[in-house]
C-alpha cells in the first residue's frame, strides 16, 4: 500500500482487488507535481487493480483534468467509429455517453465492439446527480473466469459479428459515427479496420459488419479477459417497447445495431442472459464525489452507468 503522508489509500472493497482509492490530504496538495513524480507507481497500481480513483486532488475544471490526463498519457484519442452520442468539450475531452437518465448503460469495455480500442479511459465527475448516476465497474478477468466454459469456447471460436444499419432519423447517422461528411473517408476507415460496408439508397443509407474478438489476453499481465459487447449490441438489450417498435418500423434485418456469432449464427437468449448475470454479479458500485477522477485500464475493467435524477455531467478522455 502507498506510504505517503499526503495520500490516504484504501480499496473500494476490503480485499485487495477492484478500485484503489487515493485520497489527497490538505488543500495545499499539488496534483500536477504529485502525478508527475508518481506516474510509474500509478501505472503499476492500474495494471494490478484495474482501476484507480483520485479523490480531493484539487482539480477544479475540465481544463485541469485535461492537464492531469495528458501528464499521464500525452497522446489522447479522438472518438471515431462511435456507438453513442457525445459532446466534445475541447481538445480530446468528451462528455460521457449522453443517454436518457432513466436508462441503464450496460457494463462494457470501451470500443470492445471494434478492433481498435483505448488502453485507458479517464472519467472526471463535474456535476454529481442528485440521485443515482453511478459509474459501476467490473473486473474483466473475473467476468472471463465466471463465464460458462462452453459458452466461452464458442465465443472464442467464432468471435462476435456486429451489424450496424444507418437509417435516416434513427439512432446515430453515419456522419456522426465516422466523424466525416465524406463517403470516401468512411470507406477508407472501413477498409483499414476490416469492416464490410454497403451503401444503400432510401431511408437505409449504409450497412456495416465487422467480426471482432470475444476475449483478449492482456498485453502486459498475460491474463485472459472477457472483451466484447455482444450483450449490449444485441437487440435484446432494449426494452420490449423499443424493440418491438424498431422491428415494426425497420424490420429485424435493418435494426440500427445487432450482434451474432462471427459465423452469422444468432445468439441463444439463455447465453446472453448468462453473460448479463455474470456482469451483475461482478458489478461494483460507488458514490461519486464532486471532482473525482477515475482511471481504468480499459482491458482489465468494464464500466457502465446507472439511472439518475437531476443534472449529471462527467468528462471522459481516452488514451
Properties at a glance:
319 residues; eight-stranded mixed sheet; 10 helices; four-stranded antiparallel sheet; alpha+beta
SSE topology:
Layout lengths: L6 E5 L8 E5 L6 H7 L1 H11 L1 E5 L6 H11 L15 E3 L2 E3 L9 E4 L11 E8 L3 E2 L4 E3 H7 L2 H10 L1 E8 L6 H5 L4 H10 L3 E4 L4 E9 L2 E3 L6 E3 L3 H4 L6 H11 L6 E5 L7 H14 L10 E5 L3 E5 L2 E2 L3 E6 L1
Helix pairs in contact: 1-3
| End-to-end CA span | 26 Å
> So how many helices?
10
Helix proportion range: 25-40%
Give the overall silhouette: globular
Computed over alpha carbons, the radius of gyration is 20 Å
Secondary-structure element string: EEHHEHEEEEEEHHEHHEEEEHHEHEEEE
Q: Poorly predicted ranges (pLDDT <50, ≥5 residues)?
A: none
Counted beta strands: 19
Assembly state of the chains shown: single chain
Q: Kindly state the mean pLDDT as a whole number?
A: 94
Strand content: 25-35%
**How are the strands of the biggest sheet laid out side by side?**
1-2-3-16-7-19-5-4
Counting helices, strands and paired strands, the structural category is alpha+beta
* Biggest sheet features: 8 strands, mixed
